Amino acid sequence: MNEDELRNLQADKVVDARGTSCPGPLLAAKRSIAEVKVGGIMEILSSDAGTKRDVPLWAKKVGHEYLGTIDEPGYFRIFIKRMK
Amino acid sequence: MAKKMVLALASSGVEKLTVGGIILSGAVAQDMEVKVFLLLGGAYAFRKDVADKIQDPGEAHYNKEELLNGFQRANVPYWLDYYKQAKELGNVTFLLCGTAGKIWISDKPEDFVDLVDEVCGIGEYISSIEEADFHIII
Q: What are the boundaries of each domain within chain B?
């Protein structure tokens, strides 16, 4: 998805993991995806640089769809669609 | 079928315990089944009367204050919290080496933090390595 499409997404669950270091955002994502219905969208907010690569890899590994990332000043918004 | 990882902790240095906790967290995030073996130094770190007091960087040569300040600056949790969180989130079994336990205090799980599931011998460790997809010793 491009940035405009991502900005128009309405996340079913927003996980604010800003301020935590790796693996904090990753574990927050794992914990929270269970609270999203299949087909729903989870948005992870993270200020940890490693998360930008880590969460998409995690999503692919465990079978969810990575939709994209928006770079905001000082943090990232990472969008994942629950697939199973 | 879940991938299997064996993580052997043999150090009581806070930096190695932290590294182990971070690796464990990553494995749990990917739904791996993990066995954590507490060998000599690792068993010491999980002793009930010790676990919440470890701040020394073990055999590493860097400055203790620098390390602890860095942990604080990066908002890194206390090492034990990684293991607690991993146990809560994933399929993680903690096995205490009986000999290591006896060296430090006893081979009874109740003398160690509540995470410890079983006491084991070296045979179980070796068998678990044979069955695992990954083996990491720290």
A: 4-131
Name the burial class of residue B63, with classes exposed (0-12), middle (13-18) and buried (19+) by CB atoms within 10 angstroms of its CB: exposed
Determine the distance in angstroms separating the CA of A78 from the nearest CA of chain B, rounded to an integer. 16
Domains within chain A, CATH numbers bracketed:
3-81 (3.30.110.40)
Contacts of B121 (CB under 8 A, 6+ apart): B97, B98, B99
Q: B4-131: which CATH topology?
A: Hypothetical Protein Ychn; Chain: A, (3.40.1260)
When scoring A15, A18, A20, A21 by the number of chain B Cβ atoms within 10 A, the one with the most, hence best to mutate, is: A21
* pLDDT for residue A49: 85
Which A positions 30-69 lie with beta carbon below 8 A of chain B? 30-31, 58, 61-62
Give the pLDDT of residue B62.
Answer: 76
- For residue B29, what pLDDT band results from cuts at 50, 70 and 90? very high
Query: In this complex, do A61 and B28 lie within 8 Å of one another by their Cβ atoms?
Result: no
